Amino acid sequence: MRISVNETISLALDSLKRNKLRTFLTLLGIIIAVSTIIGIIGTIQGLNHYVEEKIIPYGASDFSVNRFSEVITSWEDFLKMSRRKRFPLRYYFRVKELCNTCEKVGATDGTTTNVIYKGKTMEDVRVRGETSLAREITGVRDLYDGRPFTEEESITGAKVATIGWDVKETLFPGIDPIGKRIRIKGTYFRIIGVEAKRGKIMGISQDNYVYIPIKAYYTLFNRKEDITILVHTSSPQRMEAAMEEVRGILRSLRHLSPKQDDDFSFSTSESLLTVYKNLTSTLYIALIIISSISLLVGGIVVMNIMLVSVTERVPEIGVRRAVGARRADIMGQFLIEAVFLTSLGGVIGILLGWLIVFLINKFSPLPARMEIWFTILGLGIAGLTGLIFGIYPASKAASLNPVEALRSEM
């Protein structure tokens, strides 16, 4: 007697209804594991997407160069880079003049200080000096109001500024800041633009900025010039050529012999993403392993519950074998039941996982992100768990001797 899939599912549902506590214990591990995995993946995917779209300041055909790398992974690297010669502003002018494959060249530097307006002080504001083309190259900022400063204002040191949204809200609540003057280290700067709101990433505001012309920046802070050079090219292919051209210009400016290594570092969007993913991959794997322990526990519980079910249903198995059911039919019946049970847990876990991702995205600084393939992954994991851990109970049920099974009923 062949057992239909519909009949098997019906038997599984009857078993679930008869043993509610057992059903809950069977599904609990699967639900926790699937929802945890989806929550972790959703959070990390959201972070990856946010970093690619909002944090990485370069396009696919842009790069920067500085004596420091954009990402420093050890104290030894920091000390090594600290001993390098600084990048003076004249490097920017030479690269801009000599690099034929560079379409746009910009320069930037920054620090943190207080900003004052009419006796009201905002502390720890990030003040960044830049050229006008630096803004165009990074391409991650939009203006809410006003205008950016020009290249002429950049290199002549005009006392103009654009401000971030936090500065606007703190120093100019309810009033238009355009045309007003803020004071930075005793010098007044006229506001000509307001940056569009960018929000926070992991609790850190992206709007706590004041941007001023780079020449004015170095005059204001009276510090040694140490710029980052930004370069835009027309394509990723031309970017490689531009990097080599800039490398040659800088090596000449820094009087490096052919045997000496570069004493500066290039950064691209690809290199920054690679470093970021390398840093997070270990954490990613560790979290997945931890959540997989719940999956393992859930699978073991499923296997034990199925073994109990086999013991309780020995007479039923005996009757089925006596009327013609094959061993494959019995094994298929219990495998389908196990997969159905874990898949049900997977569905509940997926719904809970979506809820977790929604709550993380809504009420935490982490930008969690949900994608449809998470659902497919969750169902696949749950179903595969039922298949793997259901094999032993199903095999045990199929191997029962029909005569002994019927005798147990008697």
Describe this structure in words.
The chain starts with a helix and ends with a helix. It has 2 domains: 5-53 and 275-409, no CATH class; 85-263, no CATH class. Helices cover 58% and strands 17% of the residues. The protein is elongated. It is built from 14 helices and 12 strands. Strands 1, 2, 3, 4, 5, 6, 7, 10, 11 and 12 form a 10-stranded mixed sheet that branches. It has a two-stranded antiparallel sheet with strand order 8-9. It is α+β, with helices and mostly antiparallel strands and 410 residues long. Strand 2 (104-117) and strand 3 (120-130) form a beta hairpin. The mean pLDDT is 81.
**Percentage of residues assigned to helices:** 55-70%
Provide a count of the helices. Answer: 14
- Rg is 32 Å
* Overall geometry: elongated
Return the average pLDDT rounded to an integer. Answer: 81
Element string (H = helix, E = strand): HHEHHEEHEHEHEEEEEHEHEHHHHH
Major beta sheet summary: 10 strands, mixed
Structural class: alpha+beta
The poorly predicted ranges are: none
